[in-house]
Amino acid sequence: MDIGDAFVRSSKRGKPLQTVSRAHSRIARYGNSHALHGIDPFWKGAMILRMSLPWRSLLLYSLPLLAAAGFWHAAFPIAREDQDSTKTQITWLAQISSERDAQLQLVKDFERENPDISVRVLWVPPNQYQVKLKTLLAAGLVPDVFNTGDIWLAYMLPFLKDLTEFTERDADDMDLEDFYPDVRNEMFKGGKCFYVPVSMNVSLLYYNEKLFEDRGVEPPTADWTWSDYIDAGQKLTGMNAEDRQVWGSTITGGWWGEWLILVRQAGGEIFSEDGRRCLLDTPEAIEGLTFYADKMLSQKISPPAGRGPSTGFASGLYAMSLGGHASSWITYNQVPGLDWNVQVLPAGPAGREGGEVALAAYGMASTSKHPEAAWRFIKFLTSPDAMERTGGTGLPVRQSVAAKTLLAPERKSHPRDAGIVYEQLKFSRTIPRLPDFIEVTMQIIQPEIDLLLEGRQSPEEAARRATASANAFLDTLAVETKGDSR
Amino acid sequence: MKARTETFWFWLFAGPAVVGFLIFAFIPMLWSLYLSLCRYDVIHPPEFIGLSNYFYLLRNDPAFWPSVKVTAVFALVNVPASLVSALAVAILLNQKVFLQGAFRTVFFLPSILPAAASTAVFVFIFDPDNGLLNSLLAGVGITGPAWLTSSEWALPTLILISLWGFGSAMLIFLGSLQGISQELNEAAAIDGAGTWSRFRNVTLPQISPVIFFNLVMGVIGALKVFDLAFAFGAAQGKEPGGPARATLFYVLNLYDKGFNYFHMGLASAMAWLLFIVVVALTVFNFWAAKKWVHYNN
């Protein structure tokens, strides 16, 4: 059978392409081109195309090349120049949050006020922010402006521009005196400034006013100690009128938010001053851990590990919460009937000091090609006006902003005693400036704390095991630290 | 001449795949072998430290052996349980019953759902205080355990959740069951063999190559579990791997070291240790298969 016949027969059965393929292979083998005579021009064209093997190979090789070109293009978004060459373009690696619209409006306002600068915003989800930033650092594509703060400062230090000169030069312009003194002290720790704070969180004692009132227990006062806290917690623990279990206090598991406060208030420290040794096995630190576990295991003012209402303090079934976070305030204020307030932390055996202050801030890349433009943008983002417009999830770090928002007399929402925040700030400290703080704390120490809360090991055992593992890590893998880690 | 032409065509068609393998798999593998001997945080240049990463992992890393244990327990329970479940359901679905196609679809459906989505649903079911399961148990006077948040219960819960996705293995078993010789079954029945005896002595030997295939793939899959454990932690709004490393699978630990904390040297060392274990287990499986897998030829 001739190949042309085969094609015609096959196409009548509705299988032209299979036949083209078969025909092509036979043509390729025998060079029987005359066999194409009498075939429909469309299928003839298709056959010729299929026979054109260089095209196919070109296609085969061009696809990966195209993909590679796409990846290459996508990999260097920051390096691309702004289309408008008269403007200086800076890049801001911004966290996606509920304030995204407000932040975008800030960028527009900045560009209007600074027509010579354009801002390219790269949005990143908060839980991927550090990974994205580090990946960009590794690729040498550091954005000009990025979020930082006390927690990440130690790790980011090699890549952060020293802003001391800028802040000294523009001290009046940016009204440095407007920042709370304790915030300013952290900002200029060691005599140098590497970031400008924009908001903060301060550890506090949160309490449910209604639960205190219902049980006839006096609300917390500024002179409370740990024993007052436990006494009140025991009085408040029990069933409520709806036969639901009420707990005297939450217990914060899964991260350092509560136990680190208690370790410090007991006179302990998590790391030595040079950041090279873990000190969690000292008697003072163990006392703090013991108090933390006893809340649940022996005093029973907190629910067993992994139990209790998953919505925490917002559930209205906890009378107190030690530590907490200002980002929850919006949630608390959306819960109908949740009458809550704050007080300074109860004092531990070593005093009241030990609560954590966490600063959210903006920093500039040491490699920024446009430091003046980036600095103008940072100044704009940390101006009182910008802070007022974007400060929904943190506490104000400027006195003028706090006066207009948190401390405003006309403010109606909880907490009523918001001024306590700035009382507690005086007794608060940032976490140690250790590049590996989060890894050591979350990956090495926290699992031992988890077992402590489950009652599967004693505070001494947890402290000993955590300290040994943390020190092995610090000896082997720690990023070199310079100077005082605290 | 013909050989040269064949060589030309071979490279023409195999070329892109070979180039892709070399660029995206083989060279990175060699690079990771080198990195496993280095301290490398992505930002600074790699610093050669010999076998220190391996020594740290095996002697000092508090997370390494727990992650090995979690993965081993998961593999030892999940692989046999998945195989038995998949085979049992495949046998049921091989029966000629009304709505046979619908049943097959229903049982296969879970395996095409993303692990992240199905795990989020299971987290809702297993929530210790507000979950569906403990609410049902409370209805009959039983206080259910803290399925997700207790270090004793988290891994068994995760294993239970993982059994939901046996559809792929089931489908392969089903195909295999449909291909077995009915003549042998009938001959055995005539000789007086009962149902169990026919299953054990006729059906099982005939599908043993497929059991072997599912076993090998199951073991490799169990050693590489990541998405399940990651979604398990993320769906609870917690750090994946907890509580107390109870769900810290080997690959999750590797990911944390490499991509959360940028210890690329340690992560590479972990990847090579896993590679060695996977190869060893697969070789062992092939050796053992000679004793129980029956091929027609």
Question: How would you characterize this protein structure?
Answer:
The complex is a heterodimer of chains A (486) and B (297). The longest helix of chain A has 23 residues, at 53-75. Chain A has 486 residues and is α/β, with parallel strands linked by helices. In chain A, the strands form 2 sheets. In chain A, strands 1, 2, 3, 4, 10 and 11 form a 6-stranded mixed sheet that branches. In chain A, strands 6-7-8-5-9 form a 5-stranded mixed sheet. Chain A has helices at 3-12, 16-30, 41-51, 53-75, 100-113, 129-138, 150-156, 164-169, 181-187, 209-215, 226-236, 259-265, 283-297, 329-334, 371-381, 384-390, 399-404, 420-425, 437-453, 459-476, and strands at residues 88-95, 117-124, 145-149, 196-202, 204-208, 238-239, 245-249, 318-323, 340-343, 355-364, 428-429. Chain B has helices at residues 2-35, 52-60, 64-93, 100-108, 115-126, 132-139, 154-162, 167-178, 182-190, 195-223, 227-235, 250-260, 264-292; strands spanning 38-39, 47-48. Chain B is globular and about 75 Å long. Chain B starts with a helix and ends in a 5-residue tail after the last helix. The model of chain B has no long low-confidence stretch (mean pLDDT 90). The A-B interface holds A 57, 60-61, 63-64, 131, 134-135, 137-138, 158-159, 253-255, 304-310, 436, 439, 442-444, 446-448, 450-451, 454, 456, 465, 469, 472-473, 476-477, 479 and B 12-13, 15-16, 19-20, 39, 41-43, 52, 56, 60-63, 66, 127-130, 146, 148-152, 238-239, 242-245, 256, 259-263, 266.
